[in-house]
Amino acid sequence: MRTLFNRLIFIRMRRVFELLVVSLFLIIILTINSKWSSSIINDNNKHRHININNISVNSFLSQDQSLNQNHDTIIEKIITGQPNLAKYIHLDLKGAPPQPNKFYETFFNFIDQLNMSVKGIVIEYEDLLPLNGRFANATHRFGYKKSDIELIQTAAKSHRLEIIPLIQTFGHLEWLLKLREFELYRDELASPMVITPCLDLTYVLLEDLLQQTLDMHPNSNIIHIGCDEVTLTNSHPKCQEISMDVPERYINHVKRIVSIVQKIRPGIRILIWDDVIRSEQFINNEKLLNELKNLVEPVAWNYHPTFDDSYIYSPIWNIYSKLFSNTWAASAFKGGLSRLSMQTNTTHHVLNHHAWLQFMKLSTNQNNKSFSAIILTGWSRFDHFMPLCDLLPTAYQSLISSLYILTTGKSILHDYVNDCYELMNSIGKDSQLCQSLPGLSIWSGISSLSLSLSQIEDRLTFLHTVAPSYNRKHLFVRRYELDLRLNELEMLKNDLLTVTQLLNHHLSELYSLDVIDEWFDLYITPILGRINATLIEFSPVRNQTSWSRRPSISIKSKIIMQCILPQSQTTPEKCLSNPWHGKGFCEPNQYKSAIDRCEGGHKSCDLSIEIYKELVKVLEHCSESLHQWSLTSQRKIVQSKEFGTTRAAWIESIQAVEKLAERNEDITKNIQHHVIDKMVAYKNSKYERSFLHLKKVKEFEKDFKKVQKPWLELLNKINEAKQEFHHASRKLHHAKRAENVIKTDLGTTDEQKKKVKDSVHHYESETETCRSTYSKLMEDMKAKQPGYQEEMFKILSRTDDFERDRLNQFKLMFNALQEAISIENDARHTEMSDLFNKAIGKHNINSDIEYFNKHYGRETKTKWPVFEDVHESCHSL
Prior knowledge:
Residues 568-848 form the F-BAR domain. The protein is an alpha/beta fold.
């Protein structure tokens, strides 16, 4: 028995051993197969690329770009990073400049601690510098102070960062040339983009600008003078005096700017954008480009995710290597994709840096010369007149990822990165550094907002697809699904308001109110307007419970007739969109008509401001047109063949007409000061906001609700008592009918008769009890009704006073407008009449006729031909 048992144990152990051997063999095979498969996949990945349409290299900031690629993944191809390449971060302050005391110290500290070879900051100030003298009234009203510029430089120095001021000196001077006092400096009269290089005064102006800038940056050893996207036309009259083609004039201007900068600060290095000198007209004229040799350092910018061959193999790179000691690169970490962008596209910008690394490696192999540094540009507007795009905190992910790929050659799967802490962990950095990033909550806030807006866009698209205007017009829609989506839209609207309220608080931590207002007007107000318009448009169909036969022709005329009221009607229209019409004020929720009136008053104030601002723009445009017309007309008269008193009278009459422009400017100022500014002040004082609500209106609503709450509770009790009384009455009625039937039924037993009779007595008692309760509640209501109505009317009277005050302000506004445009006792009108009289008085017809005759006509000496004999000297010829 023991032997048998041992044999069984042996057999089982052998089977286990055999199973282990087979398992081990399978594991070895699978491992080999896995390595072989991985090798194939990696080989395939080496040839994988993102499908991106090549876009013209010189197209940035002059046209919108659209990418057709899927940005869900980042290129996995191995590429060598540039850890020792000097990196500079560009801050574009012409859009959303951060408040200095809340941004620079903490941001510079973060960049310093990031330890990714960032050597400095290129700051494009535009109109933000605290300039004085001739520029005092040209700069930003809420620009930086000198103490702010000192704060920036102190913070940079403490974190070993160099400040490079970027001052445009040729193109992109819109901030200055847009103003009337600097019109004469424009290359083209109608366009404030480019300053003319044909006026000596231009260089006096630019020297003043550069002198003040460098005075405020005493430690800067590098300056960027811009000069990109210069569309020079040579149309200024002074340009006709010296014949010179556009490329030559461009080079001449740059040389004069370099001379001015070197005079102010000898030895300073000067950077210049390279897009103009990279064009064919310079590539084909190397001799002309040679005039800039060692005077400047070109900055080659390209913001695309892939570089086309014409860029990569351009002969300009060989020319740069011969002419310039240093050539810089410029990529983009934000603002390089779309004019209107709420959130930075990180993938696009990381691909741009990947392309730069590839190009730098190829360029080094070809020219044996590498780029000296790279500027990571962060644009806030495409130009001075373009909308605000990509707030800096939304670009933190792009900036960090771009620095990371430049340094290491590695990229990050951004789909799995939700915040700064995850991002820092993924690149092997201390996530606690995120705490020093200013405005970090703006990053997460706008990310949440973007998600909400995407959901809202889906609902709006759906609603307008399943219920287009025709269906809504004829009240012909499918209710259930529509109600569901409209309810979702209302909830999403509330979520949006909550998110924006929180975001408004976060934005105020970094930006001034004018930036926040612009950003909300660009990215929030339009979608809220679409939501509100949709809810109003769809409100009639939400109550639809029956539908007409097709075709729905008569419905249109029915709606129109319901909406038309006599012209004398001044109360809210009796229309489908007005839920307050035809009900008593003290009925439940009818107080909202008064609230609606107060909110409507606020909207009317906004509307009046908007309308009269438009009027100001019209008048300003008219004035500008008159000034331009006057200047052009006088030039034409001077260049014509007219002369004498006629020419003088003609010119002075033109100048007299130009006084209309000054008259318009006076009217504009009066409307601005006495109409718009007063209405703005009134609105701000009377309609104080708590972001989402008007405080005074909210107070009225709160008081109405407080008074109506016990009344609504009483009404609910009355309705319940009424229903119980009616229900008991119906049961009593049925019981009495049963009793009458039983009385006539001879087969009914006494027990059944008694049971029915008891039931009647029971229901009579119940009905009487319910009647008594119902009656008492009604008496209670009648007793409370006068007090309730009085309290409601008291609050209503307060809203009347509130509205009366607004209407009085409107009357003052109408009077101020009349006074602003009145010509009675107007000095300009009198001056214009005097000028006309003076011009007409100068006109002397006889004097001009006499002048002509004296110099060209009857009084001139005519050389008549005379007979000339042959002189003796002629015989010898």
